[in-house]
Amino acid sequence: MKRRASVVSADDHDLFVQSIGSVRQVKQVAAECERPRPPPEPVQSRLDEARVPSELMDSAIDPALIEVGEELSHLKDGHSPLLLRKLKRGQFSVADEIDLHQMTQTVAREAIAQFLAECRRERRLCVKIIHGKGLRSRNEGPVLKRLVDGLLRRRADVLAFASAKANQGGTGAVVVLLAG
What we know:
alpha+beta; Ribosomal Protein S8, Chain: A, domain 1
């Protein structure tokens, strides 16, 4: 909030000089501005990335085998293969997504059911489910990936699903097309 400059009468000025004595004008110094905050650092992301090489070396599953040939896809009977082809090519706009990382199978199953019900209610019919690639599942393989595949195949409201394009998560996510 700016203060308005006030007009000082000659009498007030004289009274001030008599009370204070002689004064000299001080060169105005600009107020020190608050230094800008440094940009945030993604510390946890860096720590996670730094752990990846050692975890990959300890893994009983070869990550290269998971990525190649492990794409998920399904088309409900009675629908055109063109629908699945368009889904795989990324020709549908993803309206919402859910990330299942760190969830147990029980929690993930409930989260998927609630997420898909909400999406259908709100007419978001193309969604992405991020299940991960199962790199930390050790000998069990990709637990959440298998869970998602099985759940989606049994749902009547799922028309089709396919592994996401590489820039959307690749074989660590599926894009799902819901019935309207």
